[in-house]
Description:
CATH superfamily of the domain at 1-128: Leucine-rich Repeat Variant
Number of strands: 5
Largest sheet: 3 strands, mixed
Oligomer: single chain
Structural class: mainly alpha
Amino acid sequence: MCCGLGGKIMLGLIVGQVPEMLQSPDWKRRHxxxxxxxxxxxxxxxxxxxxxxxxxxxVLNYLTDPHPRVRYAACNAVGQMSTDFAPxxxxxxxxxxxxxxxxxLDDNANPRVQAHAxxxxxxxxxxxxxxxxxxxxxxxxxKLEFILTTKFKELVxxxxxxVLEQIVTTIASVADTVEKDFTVYYDRLMPCLKYIIANxxxxxxxxxxxxxxxxxxxxxxxxxxxxxxxxxxGISVHVHFVTESxxxxxxxxxxxxxxxxxKFMADASEVMDLLLKxxxxxxxxxxxxxxxxxxxxxxxxxCKIMGKNFAQYLPMVMEPVMRTAAMxxxxxxxxxxxxxxxxxxxxxxxxxxxxxxxxxxxxxVPMLKFYFHDNVRIAAxxxxxxxxxxxxxxxxxxxxxxxxxxxxxxxxxxDAEPEQDVQVLRILNKLLTEHFERATERRQxxxxxxxxEDIFLEPMLGGLSSSEAEVRQAASYGCGVLAQFGGxxxxxxxxxxxPLLAALIAEPEARSVENVNATENAISxxxxxxxxxxxxINRDETIRHWLTWLPVTEDTEEAPHVYSLLCELVAxxxxxxxxxxxxxxxxxxxxxxxxxxxxxxxxxxxSQMEAPHVYSLLCELVAxxxxxxxxxxxxxxxxxxxxxxxxxxxxxxxxxxxSQMTNVELFNSCLMxxxxxxxxxxxxxxST
Length: 688
């Protein structure tokens, strides 16, 4: 109903009923209220987001409700809101949500509640920024490891497995988010996962084994499962179960990817042998066996890691893959999201797959006419170039024969394709005709000197004052583009935009989670005005205000513009940086940018931030005994920045800054100013 009628109608009704129901002594009413909150987020997203603080505070109270079904419903609401309001939910409420879920994970007396808390943690971790989730990594993993050990014993002693199945999924989700920070847990967890794969072979443990092999990333509501046919780009075809509209992850693969493929490579062959063991020692798994989808999904991902070394396994894996791919299409749907992970991968080797290419083509061509789901047709079509590439090794005549087989059905599919983009092509002639009929009129209008201002400028400037953060963000971005590429003719427009941008940035809630992207786009727009189109503004005064608005850490597309200008101002010795606290301020801003990964390391601005003049500034800060050195962590920060500079060869040894950075007397003189504790910390940093 919320999706159908919308938030304006439904949220008022829900808000009118839910608070009273939550206070009811009847657990059924409290349960119903929380489930209503869970269901409302998608359809009432815009309206509910404005009161999210109150909603979250109310829901979290019921994670400790006396009745287990109410606690279950509270976990359900937390998990659903984690998905519906991501990533704002994770950024704003992590301090309350994570500890709350960890408490519910101790509910050993109610395994369904315990498992649902773990499922909610999957939703939360999936969209949680890495820097936030890493803060809680130790308590989360301590809890999950303890539960994993405990529930594994329960499985052996009593045969219970519900919580164990979910914990395996949750561990993989956390690893997927924190990536390399998960390395310390890898060696402890991988043996347990491999043990489950090797020994959970009985009928009742098939699902546990399957989940250990391949983790379906799902929301707490657990959508129905469907068959998905998926064509890996030219190297394998696999069919796997995944939760609808969500990418599937392989448990051991996720852990391996998190810690790096180099570390996981040592386990890849052993894991592959374990996956094949039961498949080859017993009869072929039936099509409805829950392990089938997980196995084939895992094979494809391990194939990506092993590359050409996977060729030895092709004879064993292709038969079940082909058999599953050939299943009747009325139960087949296709998810091609994972294709993005391997498109453009230059390390794939097609030769070993050549002998299977013809059979796969015969499966894919009929899928061009699969009208029940457009993604099936898309992936079938996208697989054909890779299959032709596989066949290249057999010579041009063989490829021509394969192309002759593909082309007629491909042309028919193009002609019969019901999707919008193909329908657009069908009526393109009509649209183009109308276009050219109006072309002269449009050119005449565009020749009018007021055209741009009338059509674009006023709405864009008006958007800077919109009540919607998304509109303010888009308008700010537009002002930045105008400043960067519009040229001198738009200098008056940039001057008009500047006070509006400044007002947007100065709003009391400008840095809130909901508004921060709009704010940072506005700061970036001012950056571009300062840098590219400043003829009609007071540039020096604007720069002084601009410096007070930094740092910019959330928008990694706009942050490089900001820090590039900052480095240029440092290099030129701008007067705005002549104040006593300027060196400390600049270093703090750059350190924050590095800490938050605000500027991708492949962006030119990153090199500017590590350039010699920045390190020269740092050395001047040290040499002057600046007050910045009075902070407890100053020695470590200074050494860390310089050590990184030496490690990355950021400063050439023939640059004057290099001499400053290696001036022993300079640092000894500074050392005398430090307390004994600071000296010890500095010596430790130097020794490590």
